[in-house]
Amino acid sequence: MNTLQRPVRSYVLRQGRISPAQERALVELLPRYGIAYDERPIDAVRIFGRSAPLVLEIGSGMGETTATIAQARTETDFIAVEVHGPGVGSLLKRIAELALTNLRVIRHDASEVLEQMIPDGQLAGIHLFFPDPWPKKRHHKRRLIQPRFGALMARKLKPGGYVHLATDWEEYAEQMLAVLSGEPLLRNAAHGYIERPAYRPLTKFEARGLKLGHPVRDLIFLRS
Fold first, then answer.
1. What whole-number distance in Å separates Cα of residue 191 and Cα of residue 215?
2. pLDDT digits over 140-194, tens only?
3. d(CA 224, CA 221)
4. Which of 31, 35, 102, 209 is 20 to 30 Å from 122 by CA-CA measure?
5. Helix axis angle, 20-28 relative to 85-98, nearest 10°?
6. Is residue 132 annotated as part of the catalytic site, yes or no?
7. Which residues contact 143 (CB under 8 A, 6 or more apart)?
8. Catalytic residue among 38, 77, 109, 132
9. How many CB atoms lie within 10 A of CB 155?
10. Rounded distance, CA 102 to CA 107, Å?
11. What is the mean pLDDT of residues 76-96?
12. Could you say which DSSP state residue 194 is in?
């Protein structure tokens, strides 16, 4: 039974253009590198063929950052969760081109994936980079980082596991800091924000935000 009640989605399925290569990847590569949504917990050892730390990336976008991190951290397994077809197709292409054996993709809503497919205490880490800030006040309820979601993420982490967030919207960063600081299972790895860790590459979203004068803020919280 799904105990997380989310009447409002944190995303909108826009009818973005999908390239022939991305569409072909969805058809040909998703069966190979994708994980179908299921209301039963996954078996990561069976999926990856080994026992290794598991990191979930929420909202992998076009997949550049996801693939770069997975390529650099071969000792860790990664599952990327993304709903938009062009982004999923792009990431699937990268997985194939780089021959990444430690990265898989789920095309589904991240809240339902966390709730249903990830056992409690399984994840070594959660990455959430540049989620939609929903800047208009009337849309703030659509923001993903809310107390219920913070509690859900904390529950899925192993003791000592981490959640790493990044945003270039100052007001959303403040909300993220407040939400995660209020979660009893998490503790801040720093006093407030941190410098961008070396493993997170500079993203296109980040570069765009910096050009607009938006400082980027990273947060890392650890599971107690």
1. 17
2. 998 999 999 999 999 999 999 999 999 989 999 999 999 999 999 999 999 999 9
3. 9
4. 31
5. 70
6. yes
7. 10, 131, 132, 133, 134, 172, 175
8. 132
9. 17
10. 17
11. 97
12. B
